[in-house]
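Teaching assistant's notes for section 4

Start the section by putting this record on the projector. Ask students to predict, before seeing the second block, whether Type II secretion system core protein G will look compact or extended. Collect guesses on the board.
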Amino acid sequence: MLPRTAQHRSTTLPRRGAQATPMNDSRRISMLELDRHLSQSLEQARHAPVNVQRYGQPWVWMLSSDAWADAARWSTLDASGHPLMLLRQALDARLQPWPEAAMSSLAQEYGEMRMVQRAVLLVALRAPATVQRLHDDLRYHQVYRQFIGFDHGMAWSPLQCMCLLQACATPLLQHCVEDTLARVPSSLLDAACMANARRDDEGGTMATQMGGRRARQQGFSLIEIMVVVVIIGILAALIVPRLMDRPDQARVVAARQDIAALMQAMKLYRLDNGRYPSPEQGLQALVKPPQGSAAMPVTPYLDRLPADPWGHPYQYQNPGTHSDIDVFSLGADSKPGGEAGNADIGSWQL
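Reveal the predicted structure now:
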């Protein structure tokens, strides 16, 4: 909307980190004129309240001399090398008319049908979250406007943007978009998506989804498969032995607990009898007295003698090799010595 012709008002604008200073050469221009002359500066100005002030109706944009100089610098930039513009060149060479059934929801008032197709493709790449966001992008973002083919004075209303978003959600039009983007070199499409991601983190665009589909359709190369196999082999070599040792580790812990209980019962026996059981008595002295010995206490020292986790009886040695007495298990092989699961487990290790 063009500003009303009115007497210029002097305005003081705040600056970050400094007191407000009056602008000596502020200019009053309309949004469309600013879009035509200053290119991307309006997008920057909309997010920089330092240089922009809105008052009254219609909108009037006030720019300081610094902002004006910065806008002039932006207006001289050439957008032809932007990834979206390179993608447009590739699309124009491959863009075919879409079925009337797919385009029926888009009225002729949108303009040239080829321009409408580019707008639909831009929505697929950009995936604006709201109608207002799409309206702002098509009105202020110079690269997006050049991608579609808008002239300097052209702009779509919020209602037209809403209809465009609704049309882009139809399955038939989505199929046309996917088929068109599939003809474009993936490098151009990826570059355009990356440029889009750097500008906005909203993600989830149709182009990203199509990139995933292409990757799935292409499958895996032989080198990728070999790398995966090698990684799986390394993980198996590290993890499987540990998993295999888990049962033996659990049996060793159980054997040490049994031996600790037997040694505690031996100490109680010694307190009552002044000595440890003889070799002939063995561990049986903890559950029943041998013939000719003193009577057992009211309750035995143990209810029963446990077997080791491998099902073998625990060994008793008096006098012991490592201490006064030794109580031990011969391990899985039931033979003296051994390593790992076959190693002896004794009271001297507690």
